[in-house]
Specification:
alpha/beta; about 15% strand; 6-stranded parallel β-sheet; globular; 24 helices; 21 strands
Length: about 600
Amino acid sequence: MPRMTAARAAVEILRREGITNLFGLPGAAINPFYSAVRAQGELKHVLARHVEGASHMAEGYTRAKAGNIGVCVGTSGPAGTDMITGLYSASADSIPILCITGQAPVAKLHKEDFQAVDIASIAAPVAKWAVTVMEAAQVPGAFQKAFQLMRTGRPGPVLIDLPIDVQLTEIDFDPDLYVPLPIATPRASVAQAETVLRLLAESERPLIVAGGGIINADAADLLVEFAELTGVPVVPTLMGWGTIPDDHRLMAGMVGLQTSHRYGNETLLASDLVIGIGNRWANRHTGSVATYTQGRKFVHVDVEPTQIGRVFAPDLGIVSDAKAALEVLIHVARESAPVKDRSEWAAACRERKRTMLRRTDYDDVPVKPPRVYQEMNNAFGPETRYVSTIGLSQIQAAQMLHVYRPRHWINAGQAGPLGWTGPAALGVAVADPEATVVALSGDYDFQFLIEELAVGAQFNIPYIHVVVNNAYLGLIRQAQRGLEMDYCVQLSFENINTPELNGYGVDHVKVAEGLGCKALRVFEPDGILPALEQAKKLMAEYQVPVMVEVILERVTNVSMGTEIDNVVEFAELDGVQNPIPTAAGLRD
């Protein structure tokens, strides 16, 4: 039996589990692992500037392609604690990432050794599994179990903590004999599918709510097939956006309190049966359960048994992988009698989609935010991968951008950590180097982890980062309206080095350029589209991130509310006309 260090065994297992890329920072306690990576020679490594940034790169990498698992690596102590936000974000959105940390020697774990912290206990609440491996011979089994757990049931992150002496200890291990553990996949039964079809036959106005579980299961094509087979319109959740193209005749819009469409909310309220597949009934989607559920029946399909009934009790709960459920639903639907004619209901949904729009064609200076998304729709095609996290920018983007493919809206939906967007976009661009990756941030999100722009410059990872700058914590300011205050949310100040910013504070162009990137700034609406087109050329020429900053009006109140039947619209709605391709209707 070959002998090698436990660290080398770990690296060999990573390759055999399909890992090709690492994101991280070396350090004393993890250097044996890095030595093994260097000696093995097959893994690519992106050197982050901050370990939290590395964890978000790993998330972006996972989210970009079916089967990917991003790996984040750091040393002991603060490197592990820096990963916690990434673990939380991944856990909240059911994203598998593997975090690997170094640790003090086993004999010193109880002696407050330098940078020794019980990271497994700290990470446990935000990981599917977090473990400090105390015996070198257990390292292969720990990694084998980690990959099985990340892929089984509801996907999620794992942290493996490796004391330095464990990494250096030689063990008997033959990489050629390594086999990944099997993955258990729960499947809906034929009887369950028949019950769903019976409920469909009894309904007049059914909807499918398509969640992120469909994307995780790589089942978007099956969703569209089932929708077309039954004629049932589809409402994607924020995490499921892209499961059905925005211009599909059965795409009925998104529902929710913030990241939603007027027509989506109205269609949900008009429905009498909702079939949720791979979704969580998150509160930003539902609002109050009473309003959301009144007058309609529910089917809930989820891979995780404890998700069924967590928010409200469905009329029918089915524990199943989304792909497996759709396969059996399609089979039963094809074997059944001719499906009910849904053309009148689908046409009503399309009419709402045609008429219940929000205005984007503003010519005001300073720029009104909706104009930015209008021009982004004009500049970027259906193959564009959008990346965003939280804030008024993310909310309006979800209201006004268009997505046509699964994994082309990549968003930290539940945790929403500021600073996530840039590093995640880098991870997406590493996973799909040929894609046009467009990140969207408000100015505060952009300033968090802004140093990771240097990673894109150093490793030639190009993407476009649109920054909408109102020098405000805009979402927090809007939330403070109910408390009649505007407190500690101003980011504006007179920048003595850039007076042309007129009090907007940080000079993002200089910062981005100082970090090795290209940057453009726009003050007027007619300059947005030319700047985006120029950004494409700069990105292709220099192979670095390109920032496009748009200076916005300071205060904008974005459509949102406390109930899906009570979303407050702050802009005029009469006679709204949106130029193609901004319009949400069918394309030619």
